[in-house]
Amino acid sequence: MHHTLLLFDIDGTILDAKGAGGKAWSRTAKQHFGDDFTIKQVQFAGNLDSIIYRQTAEHNNITDHHQHHEAFKSAYLKALHEELNQHDVKSHAGIDELIAQLNHLAQTGAPIMLGLLTGNYTEGAHLKLQAVGIDPAWFAISACGDEAQSRPDLTLLAMQKYESLIGVKANPKRIIVIGDTPKDVDCAKAHDCYAFAVATGPFSVEDLLKSGADTAVSDLSDHTPLFNIMDRITTA
């Protein structure tokens, strides 16, 4: 049986971490590479943590960064946990209700499946979700920033995981990528999926539509647009 697969970004889409990730990153980098380390001029939004690590290291002229990645990652995740506990991390409008409703539908036999498509390290993704009371186990599939080399590769990875789990190939026409940046839109379009954009991050509705989003909304307080699209692609 084919499912409609909903792939959610985390930062800017599900929640606002109030800068906890950036602070944890800066703390860890300074501890590992010195107080002069800077994370300026590197785009965090929509990027993979593994790529952010490489770009920030190269920007700071660290040539042997590959040797330090695992130690950095471990220390960063510890710092992230601490920062999340110190910040008033909030889920965005309508998200708690939407994910609870979708999870209930999935658990009661509806042909839908929840997934994560995020640039966060896998453990970092779980920490952020738990910080706003969302159980990572609600997402049957996850494609995270330590599992791929580029953002569009995450979509392909999610499709492969779907096939492994269900036993049938994922139908791109039944996949909705939900995110807040043009890079999330690119993830969808690279594999002919539906790009549902939400302007709860750094980009406006207009920005997201210009980037190629099929639909863009200001937030997810009204679930109707998403459910209408789900109905349409299920019966297509």
Automatic annotation (TrEMBL):
Keyword Cell inner membrane: no
One Pfam family here: HAD_2
Catalysed conversion reaction: 2-phosphoglycolate + H2O = glycolate + phosphate
UniProt entry keywords in alphabetical sequence: Hydrolase
Enzyme class: hydrolase
Molecular-function GO terms, alphabetical: phosphoglycolate phosphatase activity
Enzyme Commission number(s) of this protein: 3.1.3.18
Keyword Hydrolase: yes
Gene3D superfamilies xref list: HAD superfamily/HAD-like, Putative phosphatase, domain 2
InterPro entries cross-referenced by the UniProt entry: HAD-like_hydrolase_sf, HAD-like_sf, HAD_2, HAD_sf, PGP-like_dom2
Pathway the protein takes part in: Organic acid metabolism; glycolate biosynthesis; glycolate from 2-phosphoglycolate: step 1/1
One GO biological process term: DNA repair
Source organism, top-level taxon: Bacteria
Family: Belongs to the HAD-like hydrolase superfamily. CbbY/CbbZ/Gph/YieH family.
Name this polypeptide is given: phosphoglycolate phosphatase
